[in-house]
Design brief:
The complex is a heterodimer. In chain A, 30% of the residues lie in helices and 32% in strands. By secondary structure, chain A is of the alpha+beta class. The relative contact order of chain A is 0.21. Chain A is built from four helices and twelve strands, in the order ββββββααββββααββ. Chain A is globular, with a radius of gyration of 18 Å. Chain B is 31% helix and 25% strand. In chain B, the strands form three sheets. Chain B has a five-stranded antiparallel beta sheet with strand order 10-1-2-11-12. In chain B, strands 5-6-7-8-9 form a five-stranded antiparallel beta sheet, with helices on one face. In chain B, helix 4 packs antiparallel against helix 5. The chains are: A alpha+beta, B alpha+beta. Chains A and B meet through helix 1, helix 2 and strand 9 of A and helix 1, strand 4, helix 2 and strand 12 of B.
Chain lengths: 223, 272
């Protein structure tokens, strides 16, 4: 008699795409607002972007229940940090905390594909991309989620910056202005919506600067 | 199954309250890995590895020569057939005189090398002297051995300079640990070995050795689809490590094999 395998999986994929671009003194984080399961849409208005600290904003696609749990853990760890150190966590510190939090569930992973955006200690934009178990690196721009394979090649074409591994060391942030970066993000999502069934409905854009966070909403195709 | 969670032990004092403080749960107690509650652990790991698709495919190499240890690696991370990054740091700076290379699961290598760096520093503080390369590699190997069979993917080389001179060890997720003079790890390693072994001499200068290392990585990226990006070369000497070069392999190709300009057969002349 053949062994019966479980038909129930603890994971599901709710789709969606997240993008972040780092500039000289700003960071743009954007995500669509469609949440789906299989071929059905659960919500057209679900935000995938979450502010963790003044200078660190997390955007995650994948299994939103795991994303929610991850956000809760990070939020409470940040609160403890604030009580102990009397200041907000910097973006690079939050990046390492996220990496460790993901790796602690190495044998039962958070099904979350994350992009962390913010401003570093010098006020320059920074973006960190992650895989599901916590490996991370600082980059000039990043995309994760169902539309990432459509978006990344285009961002490589427009924003490709010298690798941070080259010697002498070069800056990986884009020289684009904030308005140009926001425009690029809108273009990129409009294109991804055309060809990815899990991306669409609305686009939420958060622009992080030293003086605060601005949010913008743009309509995308709802089909 | 008792896992060795000493990797997570913190020497920070427990803050106030005691074990029933909800806010500090998971912070004050020694954290441990969450395990899925399933009867088929191996099957679950197999499925979750497919889902997670950890970054693999790489070329790293290291060799000992007269002037110390030369360490080199590419920078491509692939998830299945998709290149997830061309700028991964595969040479990890454990401390100012020891380097580790990354091959296999990116998160596994990053996490355990950071953990090793912490342990090496604690050793220094406890014993008032630097840890040897042999000791550091043993710490890592023992830690990985305790997670044997659980699906970690780590193929690393620990290179450093200690009191006995240059040291190079290969450590993998099976808990294996080998001392040696020349190693190459990853999907591109056969190609790298070909170039490295044929050009190797113990009495090389630093420039010759770094050129050999760079060339080996370049040739591996040329033939192996899972390797590419930037070829980084580091040197470990008695004063510690220094990064010698980081070159895009696309540019290295034209540097080694420049395209000869085609001779024009007809010359266009201005219409009189």
């Amino acid at each position: 008699m053949t062994k019966q395998h479980a038909n129930w999986s603890p994971y599901d994929n709710n789709g969606g795409t997240c993008v972040a671009i780092a500039g000289s003194d700003y960071c743009v984080i954007a995500a669509d607002t469609r949440m789906s399961t299989g071929y059905s849409i659960l919500s057209r208005d679900y935000s995938k972007i979450h502010k963790l600290a003044d200078k660190a904003v997390l955007s995650s696609s994948g299994f939103q229940a795991d994303v929610k749990a991850l956000q809760k853990v990070l939020k409470s760890r940040h609160l403890i940090y604030q009580h102990q150190h009397n200041k907000q966590m910097s973006c690079p510190a939050m990046a390492q905390l996220l990496s460790n939090t993901l790796y602690f569930k190495r044998f039962f992973p958070y099904y979350a594909f994350n992009v962390l955006g913010g401003l570093d200690e010098e006020g320059k934009g920074c973006v960190f991309t992650y895989d599901a178990v916590g490996s991370y690196e600082r980059v000039g721009y990043g995309a994760q989620g169902s539309g990432s394979t459509l978006i990344m090649p285009f961002l490589d074409n427009q924003l490709k910056s010298p690798s941070p591994l080259l010697l002498p060391k070069q800056d990986s942030n884009t020289p684009l202005s904030e308005a140009e970066a926001v425009d690029l993000v809108k273009t990129v999502f409009a294109s991804a919506t055309e060809r990815d069934i899990y991306t669409g409905d609305k686009l939420e854009i958060m622009i992080l600067k030293a003086d605060g966070i601005k949010t913008e909403l743009m309509d995308l195709r709802k089909d | 199954m008792k896992l060795d969670t000493s990797g997570f032990e913190t020497s920070m004092p427990v803050i106030g309250f005691g074990s029933n403080s909800e806010m500090l749960d998971g912070v004050s107690s020694v954290p441990s890995f969450d395990l899925p509650r399933t009867t088929d652990f191996d099957g679950f790991q197999k499925k979750s590895v497919e889902m997670v698709k950890p970054a693999k495919g790489t070329t790293t190499l290291a060799f000992i020569f007269k002037e110390g240890v030369m360490v080199a690696a590419d920078s491509r991370a692939s998830m299945g057939g998709y290149i997830s990054s061309q700028s991964v740091k595969k040479i990890i700076e454990i401390n100012p005189y020891m380097l580790g290379t990354m091959a296999g699961g990116a998160a596994d290598c990053q996490f355990w090398h950071r953990n090793l760096g912490i342990k090496c520093r604690l050793h220094e503080l406890a014993n008032k002297r630097r840890i040897s390369v042999s000791g550091a590699s043993k710490l890592l190997a023992n830690m990985l051995y305790s997670y044997r069979g659980m699906g970690l993917s780590v193929g690393t080389m620990i290179a450093g300079w200690d009191e006995t001179g240059p040291g190079l060890y290969y450590v993998d997720n099976e808990g294996g640990r080998l001392k040696g003079d020349r190693f190459s790890v990853g999907s591109g390693s056969p190609y790298a070995y070909g170039v490295l072994d044929s050009g190797y001499k113990f009495d090389m200068s630093i420039e010759e050795a770094s050129e050999l290392a760079r060339r080996s990585i370049y040739h591996a990226t040329f033939r192996d689809g899972a390797s590419g990006g930037v070829a980084s070369v580091y040197h470990v000497g008695p004063q510690g490590w220094t990064k010698l070069s980081g070159d895009d392999v696309g540019e290295l190709h034209y540097h080694y094999y420049p395209v000869a300009p085609a001779t024009a057969e007809h010359v266009m002349e201005e219409a009189a």
